[in-house]
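re: the backbone from monday

yeah here it is again, tokenized this time
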């Protein structure tokens, strides 16, 4: 079983690469955003609880998020592994994810981070904003803040996984195929 935490700043290509990698390695892609939307839309007990926090402008507690991820992992118990996208975001969440995987007699094998220069990210997001309809992709100031926030929050995760020898930075610039090739070299060796 291969379990990967896929990371990268906004616009790095995580969604695109997660789709390619899940097919190539027969992994289940767990996007925290998708899991939240599914649970809220379907009014699950966890979705209702998460929405109660979000409606007040509060962050959803880690325990609720972990419970949602646990349900996703359980739903896919026969999987060859998982690609976690959007989680963890803090050291406490990384520890909670480790604990969850330990309970499943598994582990996180690698954190793979797509590395892309800020100016390229800004250009990609502005371009995506022309067709995505996402307001946060149309404003350069907002884009730059999202990128800065990513770095502020993820430095601690980089250190967390580096200390375990599980951090792998991958050049996220080039064609989809070139980037997939670089990611595959890392995944094939874990």
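seq for it, each position gets an aa:
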């Amino acid at each position: 079983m291969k379990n990967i935490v896929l990371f990268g700043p906004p616009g790095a290509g995580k969604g695109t690469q997660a789709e390619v990698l899940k097919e190539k390695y027969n992994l289940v892609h767990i996007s925290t955003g998708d899991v939240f939307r599914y649970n809220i839309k379907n009014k699950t007990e966890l979705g209702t609880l998460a929405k109660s926090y979000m409606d007040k402008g509060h962050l959803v507690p880690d325990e609720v998020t972990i419970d949602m991820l646990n349900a996703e992992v359980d739903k896919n118990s026969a999987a060859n592994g998982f690609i976690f996208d959007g989680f963890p975001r803090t050291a406490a969440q990384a520890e909670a994810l480790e604990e969850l995987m330990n309970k499943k007699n598994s582990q996180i094998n690698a954190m793979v981070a797509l590395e892309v220069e800020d100016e390229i990210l800004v250009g990609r997001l502005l371009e995506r904003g022309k067709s995505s309809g996402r307001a946060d992709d149309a404003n350069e100031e907002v884009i730059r803040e999202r990128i800065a926030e990513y770095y502020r929050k993820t430095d601690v995760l980089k250190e967390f996984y580096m200390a375990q020898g599980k951090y792998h930075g991958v050049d996220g610039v080039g064609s989809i195929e070139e980037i997939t090739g670089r990611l595959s070299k890392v995944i094939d060796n874990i």
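The chain has a mean pLDDT of 92. DSSP finds eight helices and five strands in the chain.
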